[in-house]
Structure formats: C-alpha cells, structure tokens
C-alpha cells in the first residue's frame, strides 16, 4: 500500500493518475494547502521541501519519495510500466518529463501567479509567462503532429505534461490554434485511469470559470498562499 499526500493541483494529479494507470493500491491523504498542512513537522519529515505530492511506500519499509517527477519515475520503475527499459526509449521519456518539469510547470505556474493570484496586475510579467507557456505548447503541438504520444508509447511523460497543459485556460492561454495538442489532450482525458486520477482528490478545474464564485474563492486562497510566501521570504511574520 502507498500513502499519497496530495491536493487538487497539476503536480498532485500527476501522482494520482500514475497510481491509477499502474493499478497500485494507495490511500489518499489530502492536505489543505491554504491552512499550511504541508508545512507541519509530520509532513516535513516526509518531504523537507513542504510541497505536494509525496508518497510513502509502506511495502518498502515506509520509503518516502517527494518531487512529482521523482515519484513518477519511482512508480514506473517499481512496476516496470510506463517507462521503457532500453536506453534510448527511457531517454526519450525522461526528456519529455524534464520538459514538463523544467518548462511547462514553472512557466504555467508563474503565469497563474501573475495572471490569477498576485494582488497587482504586472502586465509585462503576465505577458512574459503566458507567452513562454504558449511557446512551449507550440513545441508540444509540433512534436505531436507526427507522434501519437510524446515518446512512442503512452508514458509518464504524457501523464506529467497532460496534468499541466489541461489547465491552460486557468493560466490564460488558449490552444485553439494547436490541433495536434488538442487531439492529444482529448485522447488522454478519455482514459478511465486518468479520469479516476483527476478525482483523487476531485479536480475543481471545471468549476474555475472566470467570474464564478468558485473561481474567486480558489484564487483568493491561492493569493493568500502567495502572500504568505512573500512574507516568509522577506523574513516578516
């Protein structure tokens, strides 16, 4: 049994989708990020960085793994699925996994901060991160023009990128002009394991429509976390 410490975020859903795809039994432990439950001593003992997701593999002597990409690799290697064992095949998957971790995730995350959460609207920052997110989407679209999935067969690379790209509207970036990316998003979304993973915990993405009360509440909670982070960085209470 695996304990999954998570929340309804793209990184959190990367782990839950993988667990569902790999048919690994797990227990869901949802943390309330707005209340700082990811900063408790108990959780910091599992993930010193105080971020979700993290897992504890009870079958391996309560072995803890943090960082979403590391979790995906660990689970794939544990089961021998979603990650090829040959050198070139493995490298292709890891390249696209790192593409998400070093590009898609950080750029979309910053777009979210400045477009949705930051108390001031700093347009150059918004333009910068939305523009870079769209550029990365174009890279995916170009690759997917001639490939069904990112690295030959469906893999942890697809899971990682999908979990983020599917939230593109929340970042203020559209994909209407990227047909190959849309085709890929639709195909992965239809997978039963993906649908189950997006409900562990339930995704509020569909409720986050501009102007809706749900969107306002979610943005306010995220804004509070951003401001708390700024205060800690500045060394204030």
Automatic annotation (TrEMBL):
InterPro entries: Glutathione-S-Trfase_C-like, Glutathione-S-Trfase_C_sf, Glutathione_S-Trfase, Glutathione_S-Trfase_N, GST_C, Thioredoxin-like_sf. This is Thiol:disulfide oxidoreductase. Residues 196-216 are annotated as: Disordered. Residues 1-83 form the GST N-terminal domain. Belongs to the GST superfamily. Keywords: Transferase. Residues 206-216 have a biased composition (Basic and acidic residues). Pfam families: GST_C, GST_N. GO terms for molecular function: transferase activity. It comes from the Bacteria. CDD domains: GST_C_YfcG_like, GST_N_Ure2p_like. PANTHER family: DISULFIDE-BOND OXIDOREDUCTASE YGHU (PTHR44051:SF22), GLUTATHIONE S-TRANSFERASE-RELATED (PTHR44051). Residues 86-218 form the GST C-terminal domain. Transmembrane segments: none annotated.
């Amino acid at each position: 049994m695996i304990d999954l410490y998570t929340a309804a975020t793209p990184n959190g859903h990367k782990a839950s989708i993988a667990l569902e795809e790999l048919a690994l039994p797990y227990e869901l432990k949802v943390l309330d990020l707005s209340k700082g439950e990811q900063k408790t001593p108990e959780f910091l003992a599992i993930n010193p960085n105080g971020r979700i997701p993290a897992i504890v593999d009870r079958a391996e002597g309560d072995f803890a793994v943090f960082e979403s990409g590391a979790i995906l690799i660990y689970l794939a290697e544990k089961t021998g699925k979603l990650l090829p064992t040959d050198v070139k095949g493995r490298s292709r998957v890891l390249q696209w996994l790192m593409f998400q971790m070093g590009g898609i995730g950080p750029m979309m995350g910053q777009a979210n901060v400045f477009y949705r959460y930051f108390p001031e609207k700093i347009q150059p920052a918004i333009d910068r991160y939305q523009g870079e997110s769209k550029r990365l989407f174009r890279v995916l679209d170009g690759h997917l023009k001639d490939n069904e999935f990112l690295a030959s067969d469906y893999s942890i690379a697809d899971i990682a990128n999908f979990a983020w790209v599917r939230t593109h509207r929340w970042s203020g970036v559209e994909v209407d002009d990227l047909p190959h990316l849309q085709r890929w998003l639709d195909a992965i979304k239809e997978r039963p394991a993906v649908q189950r993973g997006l409900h562990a915990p339930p995704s509020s993405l569909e409720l986050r429509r501009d102007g809706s009360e749900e969107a306002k509440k979610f943005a306010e909670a995220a804004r509070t976390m951003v401001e708390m982070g700024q205060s800690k960085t500045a060394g204030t209470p």
